[in-house]
Amino acid sequence: MMGGVSRVSISLPPEMLEEFDRVVERLGMTRSKAVQVAMRDFLTEHRWETAEGMVAGAITLLYDHKIRGVEEEVTDIQHEFRDVISSTTHVHLDERNCLEIIAVKGDVARIRELYRRLMAQRVKQLKFSLLQI
After folding, report:
1. Is the pLDDT of residue 126 over 80?
2. Is the separation of the CB atoms in 50 and 130 below 8 Å?
């Protein structure tokens, strides 16, 4: 440990590092600062899996509404979790794809249960963003 920081070494494919450096330069950041931001985001993204207490956040999901029953399944689950769902926004992206953003606030264990129930459905993508309150 030197000066309050730790130095690490990582292995990356050359093309990934080149793209990373281009983005870092465009944003006016240093490579170290960009890695710190990325690590902080990664930790925040996964912290909710072991958090306790009250949290707020958003569950974002993408699904194909042409898949029979998926929209109804997602809606039925949301009705079961009214105690932690503050609001829902539904966006029609194109003729097949729908985006839902579910604002949540409450006990993290209950929100984890909601997330897992939604994950078990036939959705294309699901993400939870946490804000510790």
Report:
1. yes
2. no
